[in-house]
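Open question from group meeting: does this chain pack into something compact, or does most of it stay loose? Before anyone orders reagents, we agreed to write out a predicted structure and look at it together. Recording both the input and the output here so the notebook holds the full record.
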Amino acid sequence: MSETPCHILTVDVGNTTTRLGLFALADSADKTPRPLRTCDLTTPPRITADEVRIQLVQARAVLGDAPLAGTILSCVVPALTDTWRRALTDIAPARPLVVGPGLKSGMRLNYDNPSEVGPDRIADAVAARAIWGAPTIIVDLGTTTNVEVIDQTGAFAGGIIAPGIALGARALAEAAARLPQIELRAPRRLIGTSTRSAMQSGVVFGEVARIDGLLDGIVAELGCPAPVILTGGDAARIAPLLRHDATVDTDLTLRGLALLWQRNQRA
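Structure tokens returned:
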């Protein structure tokens, strides 16, 4: 007798990293679901569906190979969306859900063109509202620095998109011949005494100052204070340096995907 599927797989394909999360089906209706395990893969510029299938076999060796009831995909790389969707079709009985137009989010999007809102931003907002309520501000620190704002009514009010911290450091090194690649960490002092420490100060403390300034402006525009949630690969590095109190949740996008999967099941 086959084992009853009791897990769902969430997949967040970013520009640099692809994150997978395994959730217990019994916990997926919870407003605060947490992944049982996660796995990070490098996002290549091109990949075939067969290569994704091989990666899924390897990833499930890390995550656990219990039968899956379903899968859900967020992909910000349009060229890879269908490739991942086809590969995910083979590992669960139900067709993969893909975050985008037609998928119920349960959230009003106050955006000029709602279809332009990235699927990762929707997942972030859904999870943050479910866990911390409204209003809430999310700062997602990845290839880009994305800020998502949930207003007092619980609607997605919009946000901000800026170059990410690693992208800024790479641009410096590539555009200026005498500037080296640097480790992304905060130097001991703001005023750098070497080229590397000066660059680290500019990149890291510059990002901190930008985020703090943006948060000041957002709170003023909202007209009320709001909890700040940091997620993404650089969240733990940046959070202690901010003036604003911030909660770090590196699994926020995956948690949002689990909630979206639950909301799109037939009664």
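Observations to bring back to the group:
The mean pLDDT is 92.
The chain has two domains: 7-98, 114-250.
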